[in-house]
Amino acid sequence: MKRARTNDHGAARPNDDRDHDSQVSRATLGLRDMLLRGALRPGRRISEIPLSAKLGVSRTPLRLAFEKLEHEGLIKALPGSGFTAVEFTLSDIWDAIETRSILEGASARLAAERLKDPSQLEHARSVNRSMESIWRLEFESLSQYLDLNEAFHLAILDLANNPVLRRALDLVYKVPFASPGSRVILSKAVAGAAEIHPIAEEHHRALLDAIEHREGARAEGLGREHARLTRVHLEYALADRGFLETIPGARLIQIRNTERA
């Protein structure tokens, strides 16, 4: 077995630190993916040894990944020891979307108030133009549309220039279906897309206009209303269980008829 290289004082070299960080990152991404795909079901204890082998990491990085995902709210500690996947109710998701609307509204307002030059909006405008072009193409192109939609929202957040707000939104985005990159907005496959998408496009254009003209209150209102469209998308998706089951994160949702109201 190859020993870790050390310096004259016996400390591990930077390469060892980078390898450890890489394993933690790989474990976190792999574990998050398995959770969202439903490979790890709520209520069942996650076995560390087979999971460590499957992800190709040692148990220490895996345990650090558990800590990260527990902080994100995707897993929870079991009594005694071990972890299990968290099951989300629709109420949890509605609360996350409502919180996102508040935070993205604040982000848009700050972007308008802190804009120094209209040229700062060029990146967001470019992303939005690409989104409008892609939507007119075939369905297979819509994965790229999701990436661009997320990039648009992050561009507004960049203009807000508020690290605390960014951290708060990062946490909200981790809740299944709450983020601007959620696959539920692949709405060409969902009934109601014809009504929803033009509204979303107009929200984007109006947001950019409000920010450019430093209209903070208008930008905040648009940011809130736009985020709430995610709930409308999901409500349409819930009506088609076959479609819903194809979306990452669906298996973590506990659906009760009383929560569909």
Give a nutshell description of this structure.
This protein is mainly alpha-helical. The chain has helices at 14-37, 48-55, 59-72, 90-114, 122-135, 142-160, 163-173, 193-212, 216-238, 241-244, and strands at residues 75-77, 83-85, 88-89, 253-254. A hairpin with a 5-residue loop joins strand 1 and strand 2 (83-85).
Please describe the structure with a list of short key phrases separated by commas or semicolons.
disordered C terminus, Four Helix Bundle (Hemerythrin (Met), subunit A), mainly alpha, about 60% helix, 10 helices, Arc Repressor Mutant, subunit A, 2 domains, about 260 residues
User: Which strand order spans the largest sheet, edge to edge or round the barrel?
Assistant: 1-2
CATH superfamily of the largest domain: GntR ligand-binding domain-like
The CATH architecture name of the largest domain reads Up-down Bundle
β-sheet strand percentage:
under 5%
Please state the CA-atom Rg, rounded to the nearest Å: 21 Å
Q: Please report the number of helical segments.
A: 10
Tell me roughly what share of residues is in helical segments.
55-70%
Shape descriptor: globular
Characterize the main sheet. 2 strands, antiparallel
Q: What is the ordering of alpha helices and beta strands?
A: HHHEEEHHHHHHHE
Count every beta strand, where a strand is a DSSP E run of 2 or more residues.
Answer: 4
Mean pLDDT: 84
Distance N to C terminus = 60 Å
